[in-house]
From TrEMBL:
This is Asparaginase. InterPro entries: Asparaginase_II (IPR010349). Pfam families: Asparaginase_II. It comes from Pseudonocardia humida.
Amino acid sequence: MTVAPLAHVTRSGFLECVHHGAAVALDASGSAAVRVGDPSAVVLPRSSLKPVQLLAMLRAGVDLPGPQLALAAASHSGEPFHVEGVAAILRAAGLSEQDLRNTPDLPIEPGERLRWQCAGRAAVPMAQNCSGKHAAMLATCAANDWPLDSYLDPAHPLQRLVRETIAELTGEPVDVVAVDGCGAPAFGTTLDGLARAFATLARAEPGTPEARVAAAIREHPEYLGGTGRDVTALIRAVQGLIAKDGAEGVYAAALPDGRAAALKIADGAARARQPVMVALLRRLGVEEIADDLAHVAVLGHGEPVGEVTAAPFDRPDP
């Protein structure tokens, strides 16, 4: 992947670090308003693809209320309402935590993680940030009488359907299949394709499975992320926005009219994602995002002494 500067890190007025990567922003017609680096290169979108994975599950007949749909597309923080939501998905399908095959972990929300540690609680699949997706995958398998034990196998009927759905929405073949951190297949696509997929979800007609995915994200962003999470704050800040963060510096977002953006920070730095996404959305004409979402503080002795901000973006090539 050809990369270009996406974010600057300053400390006490000194440019300390530059994060490189690739990004694309599409206008409502699908034309590129911004292209930085090479967004046509294949990347692993990781959890940014969860809304598309959820679409595949809805098409296969899984039926969940709005908060649980958002949780099925989430990288949640492991707060009590997240863990209970995962349990509810499993109970409704006649399943239990023992059916989950995702990697055990502690909550990622710092306060909740500390409470678990102080209580001597062990890492469990329910608390891991992908457990909502895994519970929904199991519920989908139960609804179709598909095997439960092998639902993470790329050859499983569910994962074949997910792969086909990703190819459909991105408009690209899925030629890269890896193993995600949670154990599920991680499918590759380009940032161009990821932006197109999010545009399709965001502008979907009411009543369609695509629109159900978008509505769940818009209406329940606290289930998609969690208290204090940047993706939750961004969705709340922009009317009609859908967005999803992913590991290793990936982020995708779209608006109801089809404007969309996707980015990948090449070194995987999560701190650069939000400032770059805000800059892309502003280039698409989104003006209501507060400046506190457009930068990340750099600390010195516990106090802000600098910030992470988006680098200037060149116009796309004609």
